[in-house]
Amino acid sequence: MKLNKDHEDMLAGKEGAGVQRAMEIIVGMGEAQGAEDLVKISYAHLMPPDVMLMPFGKQGEWAHDLTGELTQDIKRLKVPTTIEPKFCDLSVAKSLQFPDATIEEIRTIQGKATDFYESIGVVPTYTAMPYYHYRPRQGQHLSVSESIATLWFNTMLGARCERDDGVKSLAAAITGYVPREGVHLDENRLGEVIIHPGSDVDFSQFTDADWDVYSLASSRKCQDKIPVFTGIPNSINQTDLKHLHAVIAVESGLALMHIVGVSPEAPTLEAAMGGQKPLMEFTIHQKDLDEAYDLANTATGSGVNFIVI
Fold first, then answer.
1. Same-domain status, 133 and 194
2. Does the structure show a pLDDT above 80 at 22?
């Protein structure tokens, strides 16, 4: 991998042990992914394991140890940075029936972590929708560890970010770099399959749930290939777009899709495909939506036991 003097200085520990460890992670991941070099980022969105992913018990201790090593000597991050929601709001933990001992563990691990991240410059957004707080310019490189946000930044804003995990995005915020791979590269941003709406699909009658199942049905067609959506109204609103993004982001693992006439890199179908022929073309009919509803709805009765928001 090609490294410049800035990278080499960080690897040599000239900016401290934490920065050195973070750069070792970034370079190691880049080499594993076959990246030729690193690219400078302008923003990061974090999902630190000691804040969001079960910050208690053995997993919480391991997360605390890992991030403690990574953030050693860190006084300030290199780029503007936001953060995912906390694992638990401790003001309601008791009413959610968390045991007292677990609440104290969360308070110790999660509380210490959030205090630290805020002290080094993390903006305390605690949201999975950071695109409301940071709007990058088209072509800017980011590091984002949130599936829906990654898809939104790429698809709706034309920024460039891979589906980074919590450790990688933290290392990226510390160093200011990520490997130049995946959708950071021009050639990996072209559409691969085309998704058409059937003549029996009427978007003007869609509810939020209909957009969810359109997304699910499409995801099951395109799988891991970058889809280009045709026929979606240019007037589609933000809430409907979030429903369209949310399911396919989680179900398919995609970092990027294109919506013709909506996405900045897809003013036309031809532009989204880059002149290439699609690997496949799919049409989503009402029967596909019905099948997606059946797949998504697993309840066997009409009673509600609990609600999660």
1. no
2. yes
